[in-house]
Each structure stands twice: as C-alpha cells, then as structure tokens.
Amino acid sequence: MTQTAPASTAAPPGPGPSARIHRAWFVAAVAFVTIIGAAGFASLPGLLIEPLHAEFDWSRGTIGLAVSVNLALYGLTAPFAAALMDRFGIRRVVALALLVIASGSLATVWMTEPWQLVLFWGVLVGLGSGSMALAFAATVTNRWFTARRGLVTGVLTAAGASGQLVFLPLLAWLVDHHGWRPATVTVSLAALSVAPFVWLLMRDHPADVGLAPYGGTYVEKPAPTPGATRRALRVLVGAARTGPFWLLAGTFAICGASTNGLVKTHFVPAAHDHGMPVTAAAGLLAVVGVFDVIGTVASGWFTDRFDSRRLLAVYYALRGVSLLFLPILLAPSVRPPLVFFIVFYGLDWVATVPPTIALCREHYGEDGAIVFGWVLASHQVGAAAVAFLGGLTRDLTGSYDTVWYASGALCAVAALMAMTIRRRPRPAGPLLVQ
C-alpha cells in the first residue's frame, strides 16, 4: 500500500490507498532504462583497441591511456555528481550527463590524433559517465526506498550489465563488418535516446509527488544543498579520518582493477591473441553480462540478510581464484572450461556493489551516497591503472598473463581487507562539520 503524507504536512496529495504499486518502483524502472541506455560507452573500449591500432598504428599503451583517463574521471566525478544531485536534482544532472556522453562519443568519428581520443573518449565520455555512475543508483535508492534497498541496489547495478548484454554483440558485429565509427555513432544515439525519459519521467524526491519512500515514513523534501563541491570534499575529509573508508576504498580499487580495468578492457584483445575471433570474444563478455544480472540481484538479496563484510570476502576470494586459471583457458575456440569461467566470473562481476553501498550507508548515514562516490572513485582509479598497465604489459612482453596473475593475487588481498572492516556502525548523522 502506498504511504502518503500525513495531514499535518503541506505536501501535495499522492495516490490514494487503492494504489498497488508504489511510485518508487517506476522511478527505479526509469533509472534502470537510463543506465542501460548509457551502458554502450562501457562496452566499446575493448572493441576499439585492435581497430585503432590497425588504422592509426597507435600503440596499445596509448589507447589504454585514453581508456584509463575515461575510467579515472568516471570515478573522480562520481562524488561531486552525488552532491550536484542534492543541489540541482537527479533529473537535471543525469540528462546533462547523457548529452555529454553522446557528444564525446560522436566526436571520436572525426579524430586523427591520439590526444583527440584522450579528449573525446577519455575526458568528455569520462565526465559524462561519471556524473551518472553508481552514485546515481545509490542516490535513487537512498531517496526512494527504505525497505528493499539491497535488492534495488542490485537491480540498478545489474542494469549496466544488461546494457552490456544489449550492446556488446551489436557493437562487435558493427566493428567487424563496418568498422569502429558506426559503433561509436550507435553509442551516441543510445545515450541520446534515453535523455527524454529522464527529463519527463524521473522525479528527484518522493515528496515531489506527496509520497513516503517505499517502506518508510513521509519526510519533507530537503532544501537544495549549496556548495556541492565543498560538501563533497568535506565528506571526504570526514570519511578519511575513519578506518572503514580506507578499507572500502582499497577493496573497491582492486574490484575495479580486476573488472573494468582488466577483463572489460583487455579480455577481447587477449582472447584475440590466442586466435579467437573478436565477435566470439565479445559474445563471451555479453554472457558475462547475463550472469552479472543474476549475480548482482542475488547479491542485493543476500545483502538484505547477511553480513556484508563476509559477502565481500567470499566474492573477492572466488574472483581471485578464477583469474589465476584464465591464462590456461584461452584458446582459438570457445571450450567448456572457458564457458565455465565466464559464467562463474559473471556471477561475481559487480556482486561487490550492494554490500559495499550497504557498508557505506551503515557507517556514514545520510552521507553514504557521497562516501560511496569517493569509494567508487578508488574503484575507477584501480581500473584506470590496470587499463593502462595491461596495455603496456602487452606491448612489452607480448602477453597478458602477468596481469591476470597479479590481479588474482590482489583479489586475495581484498578478501582479507574486507574481513577487517569493523562492524560497529557510526552514528547516522552527516559527516559535515561547520
């Protein structure tokens, strides 16, 4: 049953008691579609490495640098984006971000120099994607849901994987048959196509439509928070004084290094090094996306019921073991052991997100979304480092094997770090100090 504002409030009337579906679920659905529509940018980098190397004779390290700039800005923008959403609203920030993504992706069609790839794909797409990163999902979940937060976080996190599933086979086919330029145009059009849905259907706060959050009690919409940049930095300073922040940031940096930085960026060219067709390797990554949806939604369900620290330790340990076996599984054709790795890795891909967000919320209360934005920044810095170092290692050694083994060892470290996060929550008040 929908919960509406009490009579003592001045909120506009919401749906009556007969309403069966809370408006929060429609907002979550819009957010899901939006994340899917913008997911094409995350599917493309691994498909661009070989075509750009062949056409422009740019080294893999140079191309990896552009991808690393993209990943780093994606993360570093997130905490400021969360604060900007508090200041200007979710709808405005996300709609503008989609336009920036579309512009940066489209501009790459006319590039001729490496610095243009860094500017268009690295800077513009990085800034745009960072403005609607996982902090977007955390903000929507924190505002619109009190119950089922873990589940909704898992579903919205899985939206990125769903987008990968939708776009990756198509983009691989376009690159293989028509070149990389039509693929980048497709990404641009996809981002543009969902912008109207955000502008027309997204609402910033339950109080905008006279409702309580799903499973909670009605609260007035807070006044816009001025000084978004100052607030993001103050939250960082406050969080940095606590041990859980550094443990969460460290584990999530390893998460980014072993997923976006390594597998998403370098799996396709690594498989191609072993004689596998690009379309087949891209198809395997799409299968990762299928099982990522299952694993992340399940992780959200687990997060509502089990200790988040233990969940993280199990996820990182299993991921590390799987990466140690990958170098011996790659071959010219797709074989059952490699399919098993893809399924196993897919289930674990971003299963770490719901328990990480839950721990940020547990320790930092109403500033949890911004703290998670900073934790996400560390995720992307880790991803950026490995995106560059992976390409550089391939240039220097002719193989990716060293990077797979190193990432597996780092995941073991992350599992140990997760278990050392203390359980006693901080007070739920803000971290800001006057």
Characterization of the model:
Pfam families: MFS_1. This is MFS transporter. Its main location: membrane. It is a multi-pass membrane protein. With 434 residues, this protein is mainly α. The chain has one domain: MFS general substrate transporter like domains (Growth Hormone, Chain: A), CATH 1.20.1250.20. It contains 18 helices and no strands. The chain starts with 22 loop residues before the first helix and ends in a 15-residue tail after the last helix.
> For the residues shown, what is the average pLDDT?
82
Q: What would you call the quaternary organization?
A: single chain
Main pleated-sheet profile: none
Q: In what range is the share of β-strand residues?
A: under 5%
One letter per element, helices H and strands E, the order comes to: HHHHHHHHHHHHHHHHHH
Q: Helix proportion of residues, in percent?
A: over 70%
Q: What would CATH call the architecture?
A: Up-down Bundle
**CA radius of gyration:** 21 Å
Question: The CATH topology is what?
Answer: Growth Hormone, Chain: A
What is the CATH level 1 assignment?
Answer: Mainly Alpha
Q: Tell me, what's the shape?
A: globular
CATH homologous superfamily descriptor:
MFS general substrate transporter like domains
Q: What is the count of structural domains?
A: 1
